[in-house]
Amino acid sequence: MANPEHVEILQQGVEVWSRWRKKNTEILPDLSEANLSEADLREADLRVASLGLANLSVANLRGADLRRADFSRANFLGAKLRDADLRETNLVVASLRGAKLHGAKS
């Protein structure tokens, strides 16, 4: 289950999230099982975050830094991942059906 505080911060926008991440480098964000469907997460720093079972359907993750994040069993149905950095990302049993992956780094 996601940490409600982490979800609330992310829902305030990528700029607020980025400032929080810079101030809290020791915290590993827990967004597991969060409903982030249709969220605008362009260029978000989600490195080493836990997003297992998260719903990211139709989310815009263009240019996001997703390195070493856990997306096991996450739903990316129709998500935009263009130019996202997916290196060392856990996508075990994740649904990428219809996701736009052009230019994504893996």
Mean pLDDT: 97
Q: Into which percent range does the helicity of residues fall?
A: 10-25%
**What form results from the Cα inertia axes?**
globular
The parts where pLDDT drops under 50 for at least 5 residues are none
Tally of DSSP helical segments: 2
How are the SSEs placed, and which strands pair?
Elements: H1 4-11, H2 14-23
Short description:
With about 110 residues, the protein is mainly α.
Description:
The structure is a single chain. This protein has 106 residues and is mainly alpha-helical. It is built from two helices and no strands. The model has no long low-confidence stretch (mean pLDDT 97).
Structural features:
2 helices, single chain, 106 residues, mainly alpha
